Amino acid sequence: MTRVSSTNCPTEITNDKKIVRRYSAYYQGWCMAFGEHQAIYHDDWNINWLFAEDRIGLAISSELRKRIARELLGQRDKAPVVVLSEDSVKINRLHYLLVDEAERYYARQIRSFIMNSEELHMFLCSHFCYPPRTRIVTFSRKKPLVIMYKEMLPLELVVE
After folding, report:
1. Structure pTM?
2. Out of 38, 82, 145, 155, which residue is the most buried by the measure of CB atoms under 10 Å away?
């Protein structure tokens, strides 16, 4: 079974939706530190889970980093659509299957965080304790530093 695929399948939006304010660094490679957190991290996972009080992060493997960054931040004139379901994450045409129970458990925690947040912001972070060039897709209840990030079109996040 292929875990990651790119499809043109339509997204039926019949569930809870959130508009997430999206930010890009002014200069490529710049990002804030994620900060203190609890990590569920394994070197062989493509997505690792970081939990803090006011933010949640997805540390993306180098295998997926470029594809996810392109879908989330690559198009500045068209906002991405992200769909979180019980067994997958869809970002535009990218479809990532959550194949083991641990991944589905952490995805449920992220969905709960998202649905219980009044306002959400998405941007990339890093952290010194992860491999070089690791980027953390961060969903935060607080805006990032305006000196480092500029706001883009928001993304539509659908929770199934």
Report:
1. 0.84
2. 82
